[in-house]
Amino acid sequence: MDRDQKEKAWKAFWERQQTSPGGSVVSSGPDPITRAQFDAWADFCSRLEQGSRVLDLGTGGGKLPVILRQARPDLSIVGIDRADPLPPSPEGIELIGGVSMEELPFIDGHFDAAVSQFGFEYGNTAVISEEILRVVKAGGSIGLMVHLGDGPILAHNLKRQEQILWVKDEKAFFDEIRGMLRQENAIYREAIAFAQNLADEGAARFGKGSVAWELPEAVRRTLVFAPGGTFEKLVATLELIAEQAEAELGRIASLAEACATADNRERLLAGFERRGRKPIEIVPLRLAGEPAFAELIIL
User: Fold this and answer.
1) Do 137 and 164 belong together in one domain?
2) How confident is the model at residue 28 (pLDDT cuts 50, 70, 90)?
3) Distance (Å, rounded) from C-alpha 233 to C-alpha 258?
4) Looking at the predicted structure, is the pLDDT value of residue 8 above 70?
């Protein structure tokens, strides 16, 4: 795909997201990371024959199938993910939830190509590679976009991890708030002041807008508006904030593990190489002035 074609497809991609009645499966406006991903996949698509059937592993909300279809409207794309249910399938795309990458429900040689964007490295790569080679026709193109352990995405998330742990463990913020609100007739002023002080400390230490400021500030605002609702609703909202913080810690841990898996390139691709499939190109993805945040491995 030449530069003019790529620019036209990119513009159409974003227009489609903004006008889609089902809502966008990507961020609400153009961002440089998605643009870098789009360009890499648009180039990958030039390897595919007309009307190719493509399998996307770990599709999530279907972001990658939408990118592929915008670059190549002739492609027939199926996206699978362990999560279930998935969002409604965009036009020309089939999204199937409740499907493991390690156990694909397709006959041998059903697809002409297989792709994955930040999905392959989250599973059992030895088993998944065998499944990919089973369902993709011999010689079919395979594209795996993977995280990098020394890239800015993990670095950014590890900073968030540090800040969440500072709030949750070092400052015992949620436990302290729970202790102040044990009874329905608790006076909220003490809890509001405590949350405000920690938000100020978080902003001074990590920056305003950091998650170390964001978490106590969210609790402070919840407490300020608490008199307008029931005590049970207040407690439920505070617990939801705590649960979201815990869930993000789990997500970041999974990301770090996936980065470690992807960085061990010999082990990552061992299943393919045992079957004679070796990388034919590795495309780094980076933003201007920054190290690569991902690589697209093409086999």
Assistant:
1) no
2) very low
3) 37
4) no
DSSP class per residue in 248-296: HHHHHHHHHHHHHHHH-HHHHTHHHHHTT---SEEEEEE-TTS-EEEEE
- At residue 256, the pLDDT reads 95
Say whether 61 sits in a helix, a strand or coil.
coil
CATH number at residue 23: 3.40.50.150
Asked if residue 156 and residue 142 are part of one domain, the reply reads: no
CA 188 – CA 163 distance, rounded (Å): 25
Which of 11-15, 189-193, 256-260 comes out lowest in average pLDDT? 11-15
C-alpha span between 37 and 269 (Å, rounded):
21
Domain range enclosing 15: 3-147+264-298
Following DSSP, what letter does each residue of 76-139 receive, concatenated?
A: EEEEEESSSSPPPPPTTEEEEES--TTS--S-TT-EEEEEEES-GGGS-HHHHHHHHHHHEEEE
Task: Select from 109, 136, 143, 149 the least CA-distant residue to 269.
Answer: 143
Cis amide linkage into residue 85, ω under 30° from 0: yes
Helix (H) or strand (E) holding 144: strand 136-147
Local structure of residue 182 (DSSP, 8 states): S
CA dist., res. 265 & res. 262, Å (int): 6
Q: Which two tokens stand for residue 257?
A: 């593990």
